[in-house]
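dumping this here so i dont lose it again. seq + smiles for magnesium ion
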Amino acid sequence: MSNEIPVIEVIELSKVFDDFWGRPRVSALSGISLRIEEGQVYGLLGPNGSGKTTTIKILLGLLYPTRGTVQVFGRSPRDVRTKARIGYLPEESYLYPFLNAEETLDFYGRLFKLSRHQRKERADSLLDLVGLNIERRRPIREYSKGMVRRIGIAQALINDPDLIILDEPTSGLDPIGSREVKDLILRLKQRGKTILLCSHLLGDVEDVCDQIAILYGGKVRKSGTVPELLTRRNVTQISAERLNDGTTEKVLNLIRDEEGNKPITVDHPTMKLESFFLEVVYQAQQEETATSGARMGGHKESFLTEGTLAPELSARDVLANLLTRPEDPEEEAEESAPQEPEVNRALLGDLSAPEKETPEESDKEKEPKPDQSVLDRLVRSDDDK
Ligand SMILES: Nc1ncnc2c1ncn2[C@@H]1O[C@H](COP(=O)(O)OP(=O)(O)OP(=O)(O)O)[C@@H](O)[C@H]1O
Ligand SMILES: [Mg+2]
């Protein structure tokens, strides 16, 4: 176990909800302990009412624990320095229905005191990332459930957070959206971000999480890495390109000779339904079939996904690579060749530099704004005064 301060440390946490008269009514958490290290993707699983959202709300400082200790980045969750480093996608959307996607991101950018230039750059990147660029001017009340989820994810990333807490991020998303969210989570991890994820979709958790904890009745029933928990150590599986019947028979005879008459299964693995579905949709998109729904995320998310570990690939590239058939080696080589990363160095510089505006930028901020949006009229931040 590392000696570094973990991003999240929860020790013997309990939460009892009282009734109107202050009498203990519901015991939501009964002594849970979690340790989440920097750069981990941690999955919190459990049936309805097992305490996942309560844990998250305590980590965000929205609820007080009844007992136990909670530290986020080594500090209290209520510390503003802690809050500034967290991005949160709530279980239920709390977005303003009369704002459009662009205005929503601008609003949250203002809450984090981003400059006009940063707000614009990040909104453009994030809207592209979540596939809502074309629908950016429509009010959120007109959005489908999955589209609202997508804008919620964009909102959770507007402050380029170090810890991202996602409560059911793929709920309401179509399989393309949920694949994109999973790819995004993996790319955020490559960039060193820590992610806490709650989901009922076990396949999603299995695909992206390093560690998981399964809650039941406010207690951690099991926790560990995904391979630790899922590997069946008493079964050996050998995979090969299709073998001819004679070879298979020889291999079976060898196993019988060496290992005795153990039961052996020989079959062909099936594709995951997710991969099959994505292939069907991908083909429809290649044929440029018309749709008025969400599109696959685009290429401009560089401020969030600049990784040091692997070459940059957009959601579309990742998807294309996922779907490339291995039996077409030429096509595979072409598809999986690292794309030229579209990295906005200036913006990355902005993000890594201490908060400071350039003289031209602050001048720009003071310029009159002829095309003020609803949001501009509703919200006036200090820097506009
Ligand atoms: N504000 C509240 N007042 C009273 N009880 C609450 C409150 N919030 C949560 N609870 C109770 O605490 C328990 C845990 O709820 P929580 O929302 O944390 O579950 P969950 O694991 O997120 O469930 P789900 O999968 O349905 O989202 C439940 O019994 C719930 O009724
Ligand atoms: Mg919940």
